[in-house]
Amino acid sequence: MIVDETKPQEVKNKVLLITIDGCKACEIMIKLIQEAIAGYKHPVSLIVKDIKDVNKDFLKRKRINDFPTMFLSKNDIIMFKYEGTAPAVVILQWMKVYFNKR
User: What is the CATH number of the domain that holds 24?
Assistant: First the structure.
C-alpha cells in the first residue's frame, strides 16, 4: 500500500528515490517501486526527489554517483542503499528484509 506522500512522517517504512531530469531508468524505477509496495503487507511511503531538491551535503555523505538511487529507511534510519534499477520482486524482497528488522 502506497501511503500519501505528503504525510511520510506518519509511516515508519519509507522508500526515497533520488532521480535526475531526463532519466528513463528513473521513470522505470518509480513504477517498479510502486509495484513492490503494492505487494508489501505494511504501509510504505514513497518519496521521489529530483537531485536539484536534495541537500548537497547529503549527496556527498551518501556518495550518490548514479541515478536512480534508492534508500530504504525504517524509523528515519537508512537501512539500505541501491543505485540503478532492479526487478520489482527483488525490491519487494529488500523491503521484507530491511523493513522487518527490529
Answer: 3.40.30.10
Residue 96, C-beta contacts closer than 8 angstroms, at least 6 positions apart = 40
By CB atoms closer than 10 A (0-12, 13-18, 19+), residue 4 is exposed
> What is the count of structural domains for the chain?
1
Q: What is the DSSP letter of 67?
A: S
* Sequential DSSP letters for 14-58: EEEEEE-TT-HHHHHHHHHHHHHHHT-SS-EEEEEEEGGGS-HHH
Q: In what order do the strands lie in the sheet with 69-74?
A: 2-3, 44-50, 13-19, 69-74, 77-83
Quick: pLDDT tens for 80-90. 999 999 999 99
Distance separating alpha carbons of residues 102 and 75, to the nearest angstrom: 10
The model's pTM is: 0.87
- Structural domain for 11, as ranges: 2-99
